[in-house]
Structures are given as structure tokens and as C-alpha cells.
Amino acid sequence: MVVNPSQQQERAFLVGVEFRTRGRGGRSGKTSSTTITAGAQAARDHATSVAASSSASALPADSPDFSSEESLDELRALATSAGAQVAGEFTQSRDRPDPATLIGKGKLEEIAGAAASVSADVILFDHDLSPSQQRNIERVVNTRVIDRTQLILDIFARHARTREGQLQVELAQLEYMLPRLAGRGVEMSQLGGGIGTRGPGETQLETDRRKIYRRVRHVKQQIENVRRIRAQQRQRRESVPVALVALVGYTNAGKSTLFNALTKANVVASSRMFATLDPTIRGVELPSKRKILFSDTVGFIRHLPHTLVSAFRATLEEVQRATLIIQVSDASSPVSAEQDAQVESVLKELEADKKPRLWVMNKIDLLLPKQRESLRDSEQTVHVSAAKGIGLSTLLDRVDAVLEGDRPRRVRLRIPQKEGKILALLEAGARIYSRQYQDGLVVLLEAEAPASLLRRMREWVVE
């Protein structure tokens, strides 16, 4: 008997949580805030203007926070990416979190009734829960409870394809699990001492904890091996003057689609969140005939779990080592400015926020014609549609202008015709502006070529 895949979907009940605090002058606002560095302000200005023109509900430019509705929209997208079917939703607004249950026992009883009425299999909280909060909530709702971090980890586990990606996800999951394991039944711990903790042998809790620690050490060792191999590959790449350009951005901003359009690669591009986990590097030829490398990276997200940033450090080293960072934003999203602020905070954590950067506003094909006509590129910002191939040549020209290494130079060359290999190299790697043949023995050329290529031809350069 074949089971319909839709019947296997878990029914999820979503709980959005918003906390308010009193600010100066009695104004209320969200407790969370994100600091935006000066480097991100240009992109924020573009993103805010596009977002404001595409949606009347866009947030003001001085507020990088997501509204409760936008946060719930993102949680809904995360739930769908995890393979769940959204059965119901609930939003709670409070002045401050409840230490025991996050949102209070009364509201939990309401959620329990609402979740039961739609036969929910799991309740997803758009907030991180402490181990004790998660246990207290489950006692009231009598349903499995998953917080935001656990949900993101589950999506990463579903999408990890390579051995490296699977190791990184497993490490993040183990590190997430450890405090929750230690939080259960402190009275069982043999390390505690005192009345009620003495007994023969090792408890199950200690056995489980010891197994997890052993596995964490093993996984870290394997990831360290991956980092060593990646460092060797990087060292070989850096021995040749080839610049590395890293694509970064919020999840589902269209990085993989742009990567495929620029490099003619076939990386999986999906509208689901975190479709790309494993880094991919491909070569591209710029208009100046210089060869560079593009790297596609994992998407960032609001409140990206720190365990994931740590576990994926081997992958994100490509961002740290990049010559240039291209930050991709979704121009059609009403929260594009807020997403840019979150990307900026992750880049700051990676200590990559001071690197040279270009901002790409993607998905302009989804804007109204009047909105598209009002868009203007600048030295730092390019508007493109990766899906439709709009603006890609402008982007490559801008990358060519920004990159300093191996800059092309216009020269005159006098090459004997018998040097067929040199002439073929010049034809493939340079722009030829003029060509003259002398006596059937020598070719006079005026060409523009990268410095690395000209070094191989210096004996034929005419001063």
C-alpha cells in the first residue's frame, strides 16, 4: 500500500511571541534590537526604499526589528521547509517573558485547547526556550514542543547532503541537546553528591551525557580534518592570483539562483529556506578576461543559533577569506532592510563586516513596472533579477572594477608567429584591440590582459 506523502506531514500549531519594554519618553518597543554598522547603511537605504514602495506595511527605516506578523510569516516558512503542515496559529504579546513558561500558564491552557481542536502533532514557538520552560510547557499542553533553534536545526538536518554538512549539523544538534539532557533530573546525577544521589554504578543520565561528549569529540575531530583539507585546497588556490568572491545574504534571497546564473553551475535553487548548506565554488571569467572564483554560502537568518555559527565555521571560512563579499537582498521583500541588518550582525560575528562589499538587490522582476523604472544603480549597489538574467553584465562589470588583484593592463606585443601556444593563450585570456602581420613571421598586437598573463609574455612586450 502506497502512503500519500501529504498524509505523513506533521500538523504544526505556531505560536508567535512579542515582548515589549518601556523606552524613553514612555514609548514601547521590542526588547530585541540589532546594531547596523556604517558599512550596511547604503544597502539599508536601498532596501528600505524598495520595501516602502512595494508594501505599505513596511517598517520605518530606523527600526530593524521584525513585527510580530512578519516574524510569524517567517516561522510559517520555516515550518513548511521542515515538512510540516500549518494547522493553526496563535500570537501572544507581553511586557516581559514568564521565567517558567515564557508566556504564562493561562495562555498556555488556551494554546493547549486550540492545538487540540486542530489535532496538532507539534507546537512550534517562534522563540528560544530554556530546558525548564520547554518541560513546563509540555506538561500543560500535552503535546510535543519545539523552539525556534530546534526547528532550524531540523531543517538543516533535512537539507544536509554532503558528509561535511551532515557533520556540522550533527555537532550543532549535540551541543543543543547537552544542556537539555543535563537539565533533566539533577537528582539523578552521580556528580551532585549528598542525600539521594548516592547509589551503585553510573546512572542512565551520566551514561547518556558521556556518550554525547564522546560523540562531540569525534565529530569535532572529523570537522577539523575537513578544515585541514579545505585549508590545503585554499592554499593551492591562493598560490595562483585568483580572487574569491563570496555570495552572502538572508535565506531565500536568491543567492543560489544568482550563483547559477553567473557561473552556469547547477546548484540546487529552491524557494524553501536553507536549501543551500554545502559551499560550492566555481570559476567565472570577468569582462577583462580575468578569472575569479565565486562561492555560494549558507543563508543567514534572524537569531541564527550560535551553535550553528560555530558548527558551520569551517564552511563560513570562505566568507572570512573572500577578497570581495556580494551581499544579496530580496528587493521584493517588505522586510528587506531588516533582513540586511541580520546579515550584517552575522558578518560582524564572523569578523568579515569590514571587507570590501557590493550590494545586489535581487528579484526586481517581482516588482511593479513603475517601481523597476525608479531603481538606480550606484557604485556600491546593483539591481538584478537572477531568475530573468537582468543586470548580470552590469554586476560583472562592477565586480571587475572593484577587484584590485591581477588588474589588466593595455600593452603592445611583438610575438613571432611560431609561438602558437603563446598566441593561443593571449587569444583566450586577453582583449585584442588590433592585430598586424609583418613579413609572415611576426604578429604586432595591441591587447589588454591581466598582469598574471603579461608576466608570461614580458619578453614580447613593446615599450
Description of the structure:
The protein is α/β, with parallel strands linked by helices and 463 residues long. The chain contains 15 helices and 15 strands. It has helices at 41-54, 68-81, 105-117, 131-141, 148-159, 163-182, 204-238, 255-263, 306-311, 313-321, 336-349, 369-373, 392-402, 420-429, 451-455, and strands spanning 11-22, 28-30, 85-94, 122-125, 144-146, 244-249, 280-285, 291-296, 324-330, 357-362, 381-383, 408-416, 431-438, 442-450, 461-462. A six-stranded mixed sheet has the order 7-8-6-9-10-11, sandwiched between helices. Strands 1, 2, 3, 4 and 5 form a five-stranded mixed sheet that branches. A hairpin with a 5-residue loop joins β1 (11-22) and β2 (28-30). α1 (41-54) packs antiparallel against α11 and α5 (148-159) runs antiparallel to α6. The chain is elongated and about 95 Å long. The model is unreliable at 1-7, 22-64 and 183-200 (pLDDT under 50).
Total helical elements: 15
What is the SS-derived class? alpha/beta
Largest sheet: 6 strands, mixed
Please list the strands of the largest sheet in the order they lie side by side: 7-8-6-9-10-11
| N-to-C order of helices and strands | EEHHEHEHEHHHEHEEHHEHEHEHEHEEHE
Gap between N and C termini, in Å? 80 Å
- Helicity, in percent? 40-55%
What is the approximate shape? elongated
Number of strands: 15
